[in-house]
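One such shown below:
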Amino acid sequence: MRTITFTVPGPPRGKGRPKFARRGQFVSTYTDAKTEAYESLVRIAYAQEANGAEPLTGEAHIEVIAYMPVAASLSNKRKLALCGCGHTKKPDIDNVLKAVMDGLNGVAFRDDAQISHISASKYYDAVPRLVVEITEVREV
């Protein structure tokens, strides 16, 4: 059983909606630049922790904890009170999870279909970051 835990610095981002572009008579879809940059940041954070490990080949579990920033306009007392509380604003947790899964697809695991269990949470914190733990529970 192999486990890799890594942290992505900065405020977590959700996967953006696909964009559409007309190219002659055809319409193509693409991912916006901010989402691509965040997925790349997820890949880099994973690569630094994995030290060149091969992608997982078996069944895996993933846990994602998003620590979201507290609004700068709040008083210090209110900021301290919010730290550790659940985050109920945008981005949606499923969009954050989608950005992580797409960023790790083909890098941490061969395909995201290998993930059989997902745990995801969002909390307020003074230091915004994303903590990801991937555990291979059964090799193939």
